[in-house]
Amino acid sequence: MSRPMLPLLIVLLLAGFWPAQARTLQARIAKINTAVATLEGVSVRLDWPAQATQGDLELHARQIDAVDLGYHYRDVHWRCPLQGDGQGGWRCDGVLRSGRSQPLRLSLALGTASTDAVLTRRDARFALRRQAATPDFTALELTRVPVAWVQALLTQAWQDARFKSGTLDGLLTVRAPTNAPLRIDGQLVAKAVGLDTTDGSIAAENLGGRFDIDYRKLQATSLLTLDGELRGGEFLAGNTYVALPQSPIALDIAGEQPIGEGWRLPRIAWRDGNALVAEGSAAFTPAVDLGALDLRISSRDVSPLRERYLSGWLGLFGLGDLELAGALDLSLRVDDGRLAALDAGLHEIALRDPQGRFRFDRLDGDVRFSASSATSSDLRWQGGQLYGLDFGAATWPLASRDGTLRLREAVTVPMLGGSLRFDGLALRPPAGDQGMTMRFGLSLDRLDVGKLAQALDWPAFRGELSGRIPNAQYANDRLDFDGGLEMHVFDGSVRVSALSMERPFGVAPTLSADLALDDLDLLALTEVFDFGSITGRLDGRISDLRLVDWNATAFDADLHTERKPGVRQRISQRAVQNISSVGDASFITSLQGQLIGLFDDFGYARIGITCRLANEVCEMGGLHSADSSYSEAKGFTIVEGSGVPRLNVVGFNRQVDWPTLLERLAAVGKGDVKPVVE
Length: 678
What we know:
The protein is mainly β. Helix content is 10%, strand content 60%. It is built from seven helices and 43 strands.
């Protein structure tokens, strides 16, 4: 609709300068003012040969400005054959051009009581009709009109928006009286509409719907009401992605925009069946940022919400495929772009992560948040699962004040035959440029390591896991723990410290920690891994451990035995072979190689191995004071023998490919190893 006012302007020209009889008529007008538009630099030429039934009309305007509608054109040119209609009126049909824009076809019928104009391009048609009796009233008919033709009208209400695709059908009326506000109303049907903003923060594709529109441009403000339904399409606004169903969504909006200010929406209504019903009001800044929001939401069936409305926000936390069930009531208020109050009522909500990271069963109760006055609420669940670990029912007593959601008292959650206790929880929602932050304390009491190992498909470890983390902090998608955990396993202990997680529920979660091993029973440990038997006690450390998506990418490990009074130190032939295979080593004995098979086990003085992993390469090492005959020049000692037969295991390759090392460990579990004897 890029030239909707030109027919009216041409009518004015012809009405003022139409010749009675002439072969050639020319007119130049510096400026023409109408109620809708202003023309400048206008020239008209009419050639009418003697005795001819039609003439050749040519019109040129240097510029045309319809300020209220937002249209501005330069170098407008129209040429057509002019002829009478037999009833005292005239008709003219020809090509209309403006600057570098694609040409249109303009057909004008100037009757004695009415003016009709039609703009066409291929199958797009825009028709205009005016009656002489009501000169301030214009009827517009749109048929498959590209939305780009109404770009100027959109810009009046939304300066940064740009139409990209789609068509419009409908009927509109334009009232433009000389001393009264401009008003445009009627009905439009939109198909496959696409748009975006100059900064890329808002975009839409394939939007469709039917709308009743009433737009008024007053002296100090603009008013808009929109009532209709949406059908299909998708749009993105910041982190909010909405994928609309093909079923109709009722939409009712009333808006006002004072000059120089952002839009205020005193009435918003959105009805998407049982999935989402929302009512409220909103206000935006001139930059279309949300300034205020008062919204009441109800969902009798939350299962479609993730796909239709929540995938953008859930995707930030790696939960784009989260499965939902149950019902929800929610009211929220935003003031000055910050969350001021929230009251959520949950009714048998179920959450399940298809990737198996977590599951919550039957969430019920309320969550109330306030940035000012004090409020309290209680949230309950019947149980669930975290990374394959079942946990039991719990009730969370909550309180909120000064923009923070807190626990009123400690909460104990049954898990793995023991319990987790949370205390000191304090959560602050995102505000401005700051993301969500959370602090809490965590205590683990006598969790069954055997059940943990079974749930995670680990070897059959036995023992208990206990510990206290006095303070854990979550900010910027990172979770840091103060304090540490201690596992009592294999008659010894494993202490975990410097524990932190990045993107705990996002893409490629990363865990960092330091581990200290103290006095582990090697016999119990090697039996669990089916490694062959080794008796003795193991100490060591695994520093700077880093797991990405639960796969080790870096660490610095040092594992070694410590002699203990009364503890025998023996290693079986199978364990020697497995160490040799995994560590890229050979074993050397003082007896002839062919006699090695006569012995089931051997005495040892020390066992030690180190590995520094970086860039998928493990830099191997062994005992710090290895037998000089096998150290440095030939390799590094892993097992230092003792007694008769005396057997040493020596590694020769200090640079071992980490994936290859993992393959060797897998081969050990299958018994597919061969000894190398020197």
